[in-house]
Amino acid sequence: MAKKKRKQEHVELPEEFLKKVKSVTAKRAKTVIDHILEHGYITTEELSEKYGYDHPPRAARDVREQGIPLETFRITGTHGRKIGAYRFGDPAKIKGGKLGGRMAWPKNFKEQLVEINGARCAICFTEYESRYLQIDHRVPYQVGGDPQGDLNPFDFMLLCSSCNRAKSWSCEHCRNWKKDNLVNVCRTCYWASPENYAHIALRLIRRLDITWAGDEVSEYDQLVKLSKHARKRLPEFVKDVLRDKITENTK
Q: Taking a C-beta distance cutoff of 8 angstroms, is the pair 85, 123 a contact?
C-alpha cells in the first residue's frame, strides 16, 4: 500500500517573525524550526524516529526557550494512533528578551552547585557522578528566563535525567507555565523547592521520591516481598507502614 502523502500547512508568517526564527542557531531548536518552516508542523513521532530525540517535548521546549511560541496539537500518526505535534504559535507572542536562548554556564558552575548541595539529584536525592547531573533552573526558564545580574547558584538545581524529564512534563502541563507565568507560584512548587513546597503544578498534593542504592537495594527487595505477601501495591504498602509508625508515635 502506498504511503499517504503528508499534507503541508501553508501559513503566511510575518517577515519579521521569519527573520527571528531563522536567526536561531542552537542545533536541536533549529532542527525543529527548519522542519516546521518546510512542513508546517512537526510530530513527536518525527522528532523521535527521524531525528533521534528520545524526549520530543524537550526539543519543543528548546524552541520555546529561544522565545519562539509553539502550539501543541494532536494528529494521527503513521501507526494510526493519536500523537502530539507542534507548530508555530501567534507571532505576536514571540519573546524578544529570550531570543538567543539560555546563557552559557561558567565552566566551574556545576562544581559550585556540587559544593553547595553535593553530587546528588535535588529531587530524588540519589548520588551520582557529577557528569550525570544536569543543571536546571529552579523556576522554569519559560516562566522566569535567566536571572539578571550575577549568577546565583541558589536559583539553580542539579537533577538526574529521569527527574529532569519528570519536571519538564509536569511543568509543561501546568497552567502557570502555559498561561500565567507567575514566578512566585513556581517558587512554591515541589519542582523548584522539593524540601519546602505548597503545591505540585498547582495541585494540592505531596510527593516523596525515594531511591535505594548500593547496599540499600536488599532493603527495597525486602519491601517488595512484604508488599506481595500483604497483597498490596508497593506504594500503598509503604504508606501503611508509615501510618502505623505515625500512630505508634502519637499514642
A: no
